[in-house]
Amino acid sequence: MAVNNEWIEKYPFAKFKIRMQKKEREFLSAEELNIIRDYFSSIERLQIVKDLFVFSCYTGIAYCDVMALKSDQMVLGIDKNYWVTKRMKTNNSVRVPLLAPALAIIQKYKDHPRRNPEKLLPSISNQKLNMARHTFATTVTLNNGVPIETVSKILGHTRLATTQIYARVLDCKLSEDMRTLERKLEN
């Protein structure tokens, strides 16, 4: 506007470039996830936080979607197992097959007194559930051979680049993939 109104001769930020620093996202290793999954606390509040964190680790579902999860969002999938559909955060349709640890947590809280009758799980505040999504993307799925396109669809991302922010390919997965390629090339 200043250039157009001839208040200044040229745009002062013409040579300025914004550089985004890439931040490494945190996630749990398989061993750390197992330790947390198997942890028991006699303090109910901590047990609920742990369970919902683990639920997010095994589903990749965002905090707001975990807190809003209702029974009508669970459907039987083509594999005759339960799937979660629809994201509240973006109102997009999503299809997340429920792994056994996640389904067990839903069952555990079925009749829990701290659960809102309309919701499947008790409510907690959001503190570290983003790490749970990163753990799901990296440790639970990609590190076990699930294609990034599938992970992206489960996380409800519309762009693969968004999924790449959440997920990292670990060195052990790179090594395993290269050994598989090497065996194929030898044959």
UniProtKB/TrEMBL annotation:
The keyword Nucleotide-binding does not apply. Keywords: DNA recombination. Coiled coil: none annotated. Residues 23-179 form the Tyr recombinase domain. The keyword Ribosomal protein does not apply. This is Site-specific integrase.
